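step: validate -> pass
step: tokenize input -> pass
step: predict -> running
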Amino acid sequence: MTLFVPGRYASADVAGRLGSDLPFSLGREWVDNPRDGSFGEAFSLGTCSADEIRAIDDAGGALMLQLPVELHTYRDEIGSLAEALRAVGALGLRIEQSKLGFAVDAWVKRVRSGDAMSLYRLAVITLRGEDSTRTIGLHAFSLPDVEIEATGDEASEWLDVMALFQIDEDPVFVSGNTFAPDAETPRRMIEWWPDTNYPTDHPCHNPFGLFRPGSARRSRRGARNRSCG
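step: predict -> pass
step: emit ->
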């Protein structure tokens, strides 16, 4: 997982003082603010106020931090890192795997929350097409994203429940399994596909691929069924 962290730092040397107590190595890179509006634009997905965006856009620079761990597995350690970043001047944090960012106080609050939904909303965005909907960002949890031929509330229920089930329960899904978000909804057979939506070197490319629930169907004998509870 990669974090883009603009802030009012005293100098680029702040990166060298972070992460010494973490149980994993922390990759660090300094990014100067080019003063072209791109810092503010990076946080313009509707999660920050206008004042917060202006402050981020005025940051002197940003840390680009590479964390070789999953967000949910190391949430406590990542929460401590976020608090340390806030203490030295961080203004916001954005997860590059989905391009979703929040002002620093909101980010710390969400990562410190005790439920998987807060982490999911912190890291994952939903893209809606004419007849399909998909998640982007579940590779922050080392999980495949989910794409379904549905829109609106139906798609949101499927994507949210299936993603949260993966985060909470860590099931072993393979092509041919079936799943439904609740007992009343007909199950759909799951197929695994590689993620071809982004080039392999793009941060939003999910190397774990995509799960695609197919058409609604009755469970067939011999299929491995998964439920969310």
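step: describe -> The two ends are 29 Å apart (CA to CA).
step: cleanup -> pass
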